[in-house]
Amino acid sequence: MMVLASKSPRRKEILDKLPVDYRVISSDMDEKKITADNPVKLSKKLAEAKGLKVSNNSKEYVLAADTVVSFNGVTLGKPTNSEHCRDMLMKLSANKHQVITGVSLCLNGDVVYTFHVITWVYFRPLSNSLINWYISTKEPFDKAGGYGIQGKGGVFVEKLEGCFYNVMGLPLSRTAELLGHHGLIDWGK
Ligand SMILES: Cc1cn([C@H]2C[C@H](O)[C@@H](COP(=O)(O)OP(=O)(O)OP(=O)(O)O)O2)c(=O)[nH]c1=O
C-alpha cells in the first residue's frame, strides 16, 4: 500500500481517480521553515520535506506534493487574512500567472523521485465587488494564490495552458506515470 502525505481533500479527490491502493497520513509540516530562491525549487523542496517527514516512520512508498502560485517570479502562498487575499487577487487580475506543483515519491526515508509541473492560468479583469464577494465565501483561505479553480474561483479564469489538476494540487497524468513506473498502479489486464 502507498501513503499520501497530505491533509488536502483535493489531493485525495484527484488520487482517487487512479487505481492505486493508498491511505492518508498528514505530514503537518511547518512550511514557513523552508525557503528557496525560486518558486519551482520551493515547490519541490516542500514536496520532498513533506514526503520525507512521513517516510521516516513508514515502510511504504510515500507521495507528497506542494502547490505554489508564481506571479512575475514572486511566490504567493495561502492568504493569511482578507486584505492579504485582496492584494493577491488584485495582482492576478487581468494577468497571467504560473501554478507550480512539486511532487515527490519517497521510500524508507529517502527521496525516490521529484518533479514539478507548471500550468499557466490567465485571469479576467476582476472588479472590486467580485473580489469582495469571493472573499466573503471563505473559499480562498486554504488555497495558494487565494483562489480555487475547481470551485467558485473558476469564475476568474479566462483560460489555462497545461494540466487542470495541477492547479488543483496534483498533476494527474504525470502522477499516474510516476506511480505506474514504480508498480503502484494496477490498470488490470
Ligand atoms: C491555485 C489553487 C490552489 N489550490 C490548493 C491546492 C493545495 O491544497 C493548496 C496549496 O497548499 P499546499 O501547501 O500545496 O497543500 P495543503 O497545505 O493544502 O496540503 P498538504 O500540505 O497537507 O498536502 O492550494 C486549489 O485547491 N485550487 C487552486 O486553484
From TrEMBL:
Protein name stated in the entry: dTTP/UTP pyrophosphatase
Active site: 66
Keywords from the named record: Cytoplasm, Hydrolase, Nucleotide metabolism
Record function comment: Nucleoside triphosphate pyrophosphatase that hydrolyzes dTTP and UTP. May have a dual role in cell division arrest and in preventing the incorporation of modified nucleotides into cellular nucleic acids.
GO molecular function: nucleoside triphosphate diphosphatase activity
Family: Belongs to the Maf family. YhdE subfamily.
Cellular component GO terms, alphabetical: cytoplasm
Catalytic activity, reaction form: dTTP + H2O = dTMP + diphosphate + H(+); UTP + H2O = UMP + diphosphate + H(+)
Location of the protein in the cell: Cytoplasm
Site feature: Important for substrate specificity: 10, 67, 150
Swiss-Prot/TrEMBL GO biological process terms: nucleotide metabolic process
Enzyme class label: hydrolase
Cofactor: a divalent metal cation
EC number(s) per entry: 3.6.1.9
Entries under NCBIfam families matching the protein: maf
Chief subcellular location: cytoplasm
